[in-house]
Amino acid sequence: MTHARPVLATVAVAACLPYLTLKLNWLSGGLTGIPEGSPLHDSGTAMWLLNALTAAMDGTVVLLVLALTRPWGRRLPAPVLTLPLWTACGLLGPIVVAFPVKALSGLLGGGTGGGDTDGADALLESWVWTVVYSGFVVQALALGGLFAVYVRDRWGTLLRSPLHRHVREGRSGGARAASGFAAAVAVSLPVLVAHAARLADEHADNRVTDATFLLYTVTALAAVARLLRAGGAERPGGARLWPTLAAAWLGSGVLACWGGWLLLGDLSGAGRALGQQTSGAALLTYACQALAGLLLAALAARQVHHRAHPPAAGAAAGAAVRG
């Protein structure tokens, strides 16, 4: 993987170009890939701003590639790099799973192979969905490979540590973690119910989308629960930290980032032009999804911080007495 770094960097940047080209065309008034009668012809300022935002987000991938491959990237504070990467993983994660399934379903005659609604081809020409989402899949795989090499070099010792390692945080800290996880489960319930209910949708693409979000929601909850449980007692040998942490990272990112993105589309009005559900129930689901992802990410980050910076035994004992 280290020797493949230049190749992965080139592939990741090249995969951004089709999407950026389309976005710049639309921002400048072009209509490439937008058929006659598409709602995007009358989408207004909100959609223009959304296109500008998504173009900037895709351009950020290029900056992330540089940060992951250049020496100065090793000197960046962890949050400066991990936050945009967590966002990128969260937004690209469902596409990596759902798009290949949709494409296969389309080849077999069970779906459009691209969009998430029956009006996908009326919104954009079918080749746009294929080009854009194929590029996203390539971006995700190349960027993920670069990130894996980076974290191995910078935080490999921590990630290879045993999963089951006692985390000293006192009774009050443990109670706060348990309360936070209970809150995350509670706000995840509307998300689980909404996606499970839509599995009966007659449109194959919609079923794939909802099944994908269900998968990530369950994965995030299970991974963070395991992290919290593993911090309670030592267990020599056995599993390493990184697989469970990676599942918590990706699952929480998908929930928080897609929940926030759909919430932004709903509140800005741009989502209606894209066929996004905009009912009150949908708005509640988006908000709950974003909140659940943020809570789970905070719990996972807290566990990692305690593992990387364990408190002194005296401080832990004092905290336990005060708790």
TrEMBL record:
Organism, scientific name: Streptomyces qinglanensis
Superkingdom of the source species: Bacteria
Protein name per its UniProtKB record: LigA protein
Signal peptide: none
Keywords for this protein: Membrane, Transmembrane, Transmembrane helix
Transmembrane segments: 46-68, 80-101, 127-152, 173-193, 213-229, 241-261, 281-301
